[in-house]
Design a protein that fits this description.
The complex is a heterodimer of chains A (300) and B (255). By secondary structure, chain A is of the alpha/beta class. Chain A is built from 9 helices and 16 strands. Chain A has one domain: Aldolase class I (TIM Barrel, Alpha-Beta Barrel), CATH 3.20.20. In chain A, the strands form 4 sheets. An 8-stranded parallel beta sheet of chain A has the order 3-16-15-10-9-8-7-4. In chain A, strands 5-6-14-11 form a 4-stranded antiparallel beta sheet, with no helix packed on it. Chain A has a two-stranded antiparallel sheet with strand order 1-2. Chain B is globular, with a radius of gyration of 18 Å. Chain B has 6 helices and 16 strands. Classes of the chains: A alpha/beta (300), B alpha/beta (255). At the A-B interface, strand 5, strand 6 and helix 8 of A face loops of B. Chain A: It is found in: Cytoplasm.
């Protein structure tokens, strides 16, 4: 039985990765998960300099989901390179670094700093709904997205994953723009912009007013978008959005994802990623699937 | 080293000790043996639409019977679900989480406000020193008799129905109490006032903070508080309440 998949020449032992921002750099979760069992760890977004993030409260639970507006708090690339990469190198898993920035130059600075680092893939976050500059501004305009993809691709030593926002009219247009700019892989979806109001306090539930909705509530939207993008471009896709278990992961793979990311589910069960790896293997045994690649985009 | 565990605990007993305030004893496998006063557990809902665990402070630790007591207020659907559980019910928990109170045996104030009172019981049992325990309530009292077994009790109520009319600092002033160290847990305005009081009097003060949490283990950065200095982990002026706290030295944090 083969669970290995390939993302732009990088082989992952299985399709299971962590969704950026839900898993730190893996250290906290390593008490609950053997990181070497995962296909890859996608780190929390890191910028050229430290970011303080948004005021609290930063999260609120919603029915079948949650809204977050952390604001990409991160320690900056220098601390990340010195502390987080050596930590992850102890494990037999692929290191996928999520890169954020306010300007094209910010992104490029991080990408260049990582050039000689033992990092396998770069995920470029042009879709965070919770920061005012950069982030999603690049991810909602196809011309901007193509331009920044080109600039990053010129400088990157590792293959680049462009992470797409669902907060657009037509996600295939964004996918094509990223492909035209030279993206190697696409990941989708980032969170859907949402809002929650506390009717007792008559106030917004998160300080940022709006936040990104994640969790099982968004899964059908995510599956639909993965399917659309898989049929619009020829790039491999990392699918995510409300994956809670192996069945959900298989659904994304059947829709066209080569790999998947698990995010909010880590909060519900800190050991869930490893359980999903096991569950995918069980599914393959049950249906006598010899190679997981047979399942990618198998439902047309 | 692994020091926190996700377990299926069993409800040993549960009772409503004040209106909407429940006391639950839980039989744990390993969590009770590791737990310290001031730490908390994440309690998971059974209803699948409620994804996030509820962080609840530890009220008592019974290592001999591997049991933990939590006292919580019903504030939403999650805690409502917990309040309906009976003896023998299974409940998913993760813990022990956070750092807990440092045990410094000096003439102490243990100050609890509202649902910040429960962790003071675990602390009062562990601290072997002169303790003035000051409790602030809106109106209805709970846990005051149990706390009285471990120190001198002073009560403040907003409506004046018991003890000092006013807040915990009013009770301290009215009774001319003094301390060399302060431990406090309660609503932010109370903690802010205690921090100010302690700074004036130059008293070492440990505050237990609260914030909306997701992961509970320091990964997601939802529950941060502002720190005076750049934090060594986050490299910004933010500390993680679930991991670096919930207990902080008052002058370390901006509240």
């Amino acid at each position: 039985m083969n669970t290995r998949i390939n993302l732009a020449g990088v082989e992952l032992k299985n399709p299971v990765t962590t969704a950026s921002g839900t898993f730190g750099s893996g250290e906290e979760y390593s008490e609950f998960v053997n990181l070497s069992r995962l296909g890859g760890v996608v780190t929390k977004g890191v910028a050229n300099i430290p970011w303080e993030g948004n005021p609290t409260p930063r999260i609120a639970e919603t029915y079948g989901g949650m809204i977050n507006a952390i604001g990409l708090q991160n320690p900056g690339i220098e601390v990340f390179v010195q502390r987080d990469i050596p930590f992850l190198k102890q494990f037999d898993t692929k290191i996928i670094v999520n890169v954020c920035g306010k300007t094209t130059e910010d992104y490029c600075e991080v990408v260049e700093r990582l050039a000689d680092q033992p990092v396998d893939l770069l995920e470029i976050n042009v879709s965070c709904p919770n920061v005012k500059e950069g982030g999603i501004a690049f991810g909602q305009d196809p011309k901007c997205l193509e331009a920044i993809t080109k600039e990053i691709k010129k400088r990157a030593k590792q293959p680049i994953i462009m992470k797409l926002s669902p907060n657009v009219t037509d996600i295939t247009e964004m996918a094509r723009a990223a492909e035209a700019g030279g993206a190697d892989v696409l990941s989708l979806i980032n969170t859907l912009t949402g809002m929650k109001i506390d009717i007792n306090k008559r106030a917004f539930a998160v300080a940022n007013k709006t936040g990104g909705l994640s969790g099982p509530a968004i899964k059908p939207v995510a599956v639909r978008m993965v399917y659309q993008v898989a049929n619009a471009v020829s790039l491999p896709i990392i699918g995510m959005g409300g994956i809670m278990n192996a069945e959900d992961a298989i659904e994304f793979i059947l829709a066209g994802a080569t790999a998947i990311s698990v995010g909010t589910a880590n909060f519900v069960n800190p050991g869930v990623t490893e359980e999903i790896v096991n569950g995918i293997e069980e599914y393959m045994r049950k249906y006598n699937v010899k190679d997981i690649n047979e399942l990618i985009g198998a439902v047309r | 080293m692994k020091d926190k565990f996700k377990e299926t605990a069993i409800v040993i007993a549960q009772e409503e000790i004040a209106t909407g305030v429940f006391s639950m004893w839980l039989k744990t496998d390993r969590i009770a043996a590791e737990a310290k006063a001031g730490q908390f557990i994440s309690v998971y809902c059974r209803e699948g639409s409620r994804l996030l665990p509820r962080p609840i402070s530890i009220c008592e630790i019974d290592t001999a019977d591997s049991a933990l007591r939590i006292v919580y207020r019903v504030v939403g659907q999650g805690t409502e679900e917990f309040s309906k559980m009976n003896t023998g019910s299974q409940i998913e928990i993760l813990g022990p989480l956070g750092n807990g109170f440092p045990l410094k045996e000096r003439k102490a104030f243990l100050i609890g406000g509202g649902i910040g009172i429960p962790p003071m019981l675990a602390l009062a049992k562990e601290l072997d020193c002169e303790k003035n325990i000051i409790l602030g309530y809106k109106d209805e009292l709970f846990l005051q008799d149990e706390l009285a077994e471990h120190g001198n009790i002073y009560i403040a109520t907003e409506d004046g129905s018991c003890g000092t009319k006013g807040n915990v600092l009013d009770a301290i002033r009215e009774n001319a109490l003094e301390a060399d160290i302060i431990y406090a847990c309660g609503p932010t305005p109370m903690l802010r006032a205690i921090k100010e009081y302690a700074a004036e009097k130059d008293i070492e003060t440990w505050l237990s903070l609260e914030e909306k949490m997701a992961c509970g283990i320091g990964a997601c950065l939802a529950c941060v508080c502002k720190s005076k200095e750049t934090d060594s982990h986050t490299n910004v002026h933010n500390k993680r309440i679930c991991k670096d706290g919930p207990v902080f030295l008052a002058e370390e944090v901006e509240i």
